[in-house]
Write a structure and sequence with these properties.
3-stranded antiparallel beta sheet, 91 residues, 40% helix, 3 helices, Outer Surface Protein A, domain 3, alpha+beta, 6 strands
Length: 91
């Protein structure tokens, strides 16, 4: 399975952070803006093209010098959150 930006998600980099506005997310109660920080902006930028979980884990492991288990957990949480927010497509 691969993941990439949902075409209806607007985003903008501001310094070291990325602000997402998933336009498909219709929620009158909650703020529809999500701010990515830490390693998440780098993962988000990688997802401009379809990427597998393994590719994302490899990136975290090499760039941030974390063990594979930790990188896998972080990527899993990242993807889960962005899928919940309808900011990603999966295939």
């Amino acid at each position: 399975m691969t993941y990439q930006h949902h075409p209806s998600t607007a985003w903008h980099a501001i310094g070291s952070r990325v602000v997402l506005v998933p336009l498909e997310r219709q929620d009158g109660v909650h703020n529809n803006t999500l701010v990515l920080s830490g390693s998440a902006p780098a993962l988000w930028r990688l997802l401009e093209e379809p990427r597998s979980v393994e590719e994302l884990v490899d990136h975290l492991q090499s760039e941030y010098e974390v063990d594979r288990e930790r990188a896998g957990l972080d990527v899993g949480r990242f993807l889960e959150r962005l899928l919940e927010w309808k900011a990603l497509d999966s295939r």
